[in-house]
Amino acid sequence: MAEAVIEGRWLLLIHQIPPKPDYFRVKIWRRLQRLGAVAIKNSVYVLPKSEQTQEDFQWVLREIVEGRGEASLCEARFVEGLSDDQVEALFQAARGAEYDQVAEEARRLSAMPLPDGQIDETRRTQLEIDLARLKRRLAEVVAIDFFGAPGREAAEGLVSGVEARMHEKRYGKQIVSATVTRREDFQGKVWVTRKGIHVDRMASAWFIRRFIDSDARFKFVPPKGYKPLPGELRFDMFEAEFTHEGDRCTLEVLIERTGIHDPGLSPIAEIVHDIDLKDSKFGRQDTPGIERLIAGIAMAHKDDENRLARGAAVFDDLYEYFKRKSS
């Protein structure tokens, strides 16, 4: 009986580029960066297997060969050494760093004084050009974010915040999110978010179950391509009903839009904000310790339900502490 063939989930591009001319090596490196490929060894690049990534690698291979280099493209699965999780972590680290760069540029634009009056039209035009360039850069990173890297929601929120601020200055109209105060509207819903939950999604899920619907059910889905079903509400993910707005994390948006004012919540929201957005806006002394604790939960528990349970216990205890301290 013939053995079943196990297909690989990765594509590897193995290449050797002539040392001269220098520009050709840089050109190929930049092409691979734009595709979102990551290096697992010198001259060995990996992408998740799909028809599109295979075509992308084939074009690079052809370009290398035409430049008198050598290249091979193969389908692979890792048996020993690197695990699939470790390879995914390489992609997440690369995209996470790029989201951080987008977020930092958005903060720079947000901090700039907005032009006022006809005399500042040139400066206004430059700001609009910078914002358009930043939006394109964000779209490029999202397109090669294969595994839902941390930082996307923060970057998107900050970029949209800059856009809203410029719109308000130009047209005198403030763009605000809809405020919902009827918690009854959210009873019996299924709350959907991205797999691999971390601090903002842990805290938001805890808030939903503690303050909105004690019987709330949660669903963890891939970062790309999910279509919500009737009766579902999404949070902290692309096009979600509740996600980052401007420089506010999802937990802050949930608290504001549900109209729940509780002195025990404010310090938690500040801690989650600083961990998630990495901007030290509130600078609480207890934030670094909570950040390490949340990181430990993520390292020790791959399953999202386990992460949710462990995170909920942390936020329950934090809430009791801050609530009693404020009374």
Q: Short description, anyone?
A:
The protein is of the alpha/beta class and 327 residues long. The chain contains 10 helices and 7 strands. Strand 5 (190-194), helix 6 (199-212) and strand 6 form a beta-alpha-beta unit.
Please tell me how large the radius of gyration is.
Answer: 23 Å
Strand order of the largest sheet: 2-3-1-4
Distance between the termini: 73 Å
Shape: globular
Counted beta strands: 7
Which descriptors would you attach to this protein?
alpha/beta, 53% helix, disordered N terminus, 327 residues, globular, 11% strand, three-stranded parallel β-sheet
Topology summary:
Blueprint: E1 10-16, H1 22-35, E2 38-41, E3 44-48, H2 51-66, E4 70-76, H3 84-111, H4 121-143, H5 152-171, E5 190-194, H6 199-212, E6 217-221, E7 232-234, H7 250-258, H8 265-277, H9 287-300, H10 304-326
Parallel strand pairs: 5-6, 5-7
Antiparallel strand pairs: 1-3, 1-4, 2-3
Helix pairs in contact: 1-2, 3-4, 3-5, 4-5, 6-7, 6-10, 8-9
Please describe what this structure looks like.
The protein has 327 residues and is an alpha/beta fold. The chain is built from ten helices and seven strands. The chain has helices spanning 22-35, 51-66, 84-111, 121-143, 152-171, 199-212, 250-258, 265-277, 287-300, 304-326, and strands spanning 10-16, 38-41, 44-48, 70-76, 190-194, 217-221, 232-234. The strands form two sheets. A four-stranded antiparallel beta sheet has the order 2-3-1-4, sandwiched between helices. Strands 6-5-7 form a three-stranded parallel beta sheet, covered by helices on one side. The radius of gyration is 23 Å and the shape is globular. The termini are far apart. Mean pLDDT is 90; it is low at 1-6.
